[in-house]
Specification:
CATH architecture of the largest domain: Up-down Bundle
CATH topology of the largest domain: Formate dehydrogenase/DMSO reductase fold
Structural class: mainly alpha
Shape: elongated
Mean pLDDT: 87
Strand order of the largest sheet: 2-3-1-4
Number of domains: 3
Number of strands: 4
Helix content: 55-70%
CATH class of the largest domain: Mainly Alpha
CATH superfamily of the largest domain: Formate dehydrogenase/DMSO reductase domain
Radius of gyration: 28 Å
Distance between the termini: 40 Å
């Protein structure tokens, strides 16, 4: 039996109720791990980086391992939310919100580790591009500077993408708690701020739909670029094992591989603990597992082609390094990668492993561990075994690095647990819309070249018209009511809906949202600003790096690209706020709290003399309620 809109609301929002005692005990345990992270970090700040295991020649250790790992974990959220949204993969709806939250938390933790690795964290401003009397500017030819731009852009865009996707569901939570606890309750105010005055009018849905689409379009190339740029930290070095053109696709595939595994690690227990079995179904886990099979194949190919490339290239150092890896001090790590990242997830070929949540959980944990070990081998192996035999050494993390690493995992799970109790973990509006699409009642999107009808609370001539509200229980009846009113010549029509109804765009004679133009202007400004920033900095530095003169425009494409995505996303977000009029204090006349749950509203404003005519037109549409001034 299909879930009703009210059932979806109740089951998801019930999970935000006060948790049991064991929830607080888990939070306390995770907080202890985070406290260990802070203590170890402060100890390192006061004692110096000598307390860490990094040393010459291994100048990058576990901190950079964690940075690369957590950036990779963040990738699955954008894959599920943006790429699969553009591909219209219906199964993404149930897991996208948790994946987006995971992205925000993972990229935040990833950004923490360069600061820890820096040692003297108080001089981090040296890498930021701002005018200074010392004329010390970052070098935009360096992949390390590209990292700063890529990760900071990814974090900003991920946060905006997460908040935008949350708006309709925050409105549903606002109305749920207002009805249950009252308008002055702290949760009502919390969700009211997140919802930003959302009422589900067709005007708001029109702008929201376009904004979300363009966010997805901009986030898709961003997710590919971020881990490619991270891989260039290594690939642009000359060390054996690093200097390889396979790194960008290899890193991106590995990031998605580990991210999908972490999605399973989080969602399998969350589904049971929050009683979301009716909404997050085995089918969704099955599709995640099938997607992991694709990345498993790519990882297996990469592991096989890497030694082949070293042999085929004929370089003595590359061949020597490829022969050392399986039998040197990183040998156990090397062989574990093949087991944990390829052989174990290859079991997902068999349906019985995909259908068993316990087996899925174990496989996902194996992949998460394996991908962390892979990052460990990539970061530390090449520096410990470079061109000069007298410079070879090994690396093992100290208690400080282990404590900070453990604390980072505790922080991640702590943030996710807080999210699971504070916000809707499953996108209600998406699930409702998908269900309505399956019923075939939402219609196809259309648009009109005629002058748009007045909506969004428009009054009749002189502002003294009669206002009538019809309440419907089905989307199709609402669309029918709008069509009948339009055919009868009524102009001042407004609708309220818990889901997007593409058919209303044509029925209300609404043109497409201008958000696409606003986003384009922001993107162009960001691209020009990126080139200007990199070119202006190069003119001040006037350095020749790697045989390249100051004006090396190919590397400058990186800051230009990040600027394009960043300012395009900000323009998109601000355009949505202003065009949809999303102010938390805004009130809509005739709005009913049920309109964010399972009811549809139609408001028509007309002169008093046409009041009876409007009621007569709407009578055959199957209204559940009718209210008139």
């Amino acid at each position: 039996m299909a879930e009703t809109f009210a059932d979806i609301n109740e089951k998801i929002l019930r999970a935000t109720a006060p948790p049991p005692l064991r929830y607080y005990l888990v939070l306390l345990a995770l907080s202890a791990g985070v406290s260990g992270l802070l203590y170890a970090w402060m100890y390192q700040v006061f004692q110096g980086l000598g307390v860490a295991g990094i040393h010459d020649p291994v100048d990058w250790g576990v901190y950079i391992v964690n940075f690369v790992f957590w950036v990779g974990i963040a990738h699955s959220g954008t894959l599920i939310s943006a790429i699969l949204f553009l591909l219209r993969a219906g199964w993404r709806d149930a897991v996208s919100r948790s994946a987006e939250a995971m992205t925000v938390f993972a990229v935040t933790i990833a950004g923490l580790f360069p600061l820890i690795h820096l040692g003297r964290v108080w001089v981090v401003y040296f890498i930021l591009p701002y005018p200074t009397e010392r004329f010390i500017y970052p070098n935009f030819l360096s992949p390390l500077v590209w990292d700063v731009l890529a990760v900071s852009t990814y974090m900003n865009v991920s946060v905006i993408f997460f908040l935008v996707g949350l708006i309709p569901d925050a409105a549903a939570a606002r109305d749920y708690y207002q009805q249950k606890e009252g308008p002055g309750h702290v949760k009502t105010w919390f969700y009211k701020i997140l919802a930003g005055g959302w009422a589900g009018t067709e005007l708001q849905w029109r702008h929201y739909d376009r904004a979300y689409l363009y966010f997805a379009a901009m986030a898709t190339p961003l997710v590919i670029s971020v881990h490619s740029i991270v891989s260039w930290d290594f690939a642009m070095g000359l060390l054996p094992g690093w200097h390889s053109t396979i790194f960008p696709p290899y890193f991106v595939a590995g990031a998605i591989h580990s991210g999908l595994a972490m999605v399973l690690v989080l969602l399998i227990p969350m589904r049971r603990l929050l009683h979301l079995e009716a909404l997050i179904k085995p089918h969704h886990f099955d599709m995640v597992a099938k997607t992991m099979l694709v990345t498993t194949a790519i990882m297996g190919y990469s592991y096989g082609v890497e030694p082949f490339m070293a042999w085929y290239a004929g370089g003595i150092f590359d061949r020597q390094f490829a022969a050392w890896e399986p039998f040197g001090w990183v040998g156990p790590v090397y062989w574990s990668l093949i087991l944990l990242n390829v052989l174990v997830p290859a079991l997902l070929i068999f349906r019985k492993f995909r259908a068993d949540s316990r087996a899925l959980m174990l496989i996902a944990l194996a992949v998460v561990i394996g991908m962390w070990l892979e990052r460990f081998m990539i970061v530390t192996a090449s520096t410990s075994h470079d061109f000069m035999p007298h410079n070879w050494d090994s690396y093992f993390p100290t208690w400080v690095e282990i404590t900070i690493t453990f604390g980072a995992f505790c922080l991640f799970f702590l943030l996710f647990l807080l999210f699971a109790k504070l916000l809707p973990t499953v996108p209600m509006a998406d699930l409702k819309a998908r269900q309505e699409e399956a019923a075939g009642t939402v219609g196809e999107e259309g648009e009109s070249d005629q002058a748009p009808l007045l909506a969004a609370g428009a009054a009749g001539p002189g502002g003294d018209g009669s206002v009538m509200l019809a309440v419907y229980g089905e989307a199709g009846r609402l669309v029918d009511g709008v069509r009948r009113l339009r055919d009868a010549g009524f102009l001042h029509i407004e609708t309220f809906s818990p889901i997007r109804l593409p058919a209303l765009l044509g029925e209300l004679h609404l043109t497409r949202s201008p958000i696409r133009v606003i986003s384009l202007l922001g993107a162009i400004s960001g691209m020009a600003g990126g080139f200007w920033l990199a070119g202006g900095t190069a003119a001040v530095n006037n350095l020749i790096v790697g045989g390249k003169g100051p004006d090396s425009w190919i590397p400058f494409c990186i800051p230009a690209f990040e600027g394009t995505i960043l300012l395009g996303s900000f323009a998109n977000f601000l355009g949505l706020i202003f065009l949809a009029r999303l102010w938390p204090w805004r009130k809509h006349a005739r709005y009913d709290l049920r309109f964010s749950r399972d009811k549809f509203g139609l408001v028509v404003t007309c002169p008093p003399t046409l009041k009876e005519r409007a009621a007569e037109v709407l009578a055959p549409t199957g209204m559940e309620e009718f209210h008139a001034d």
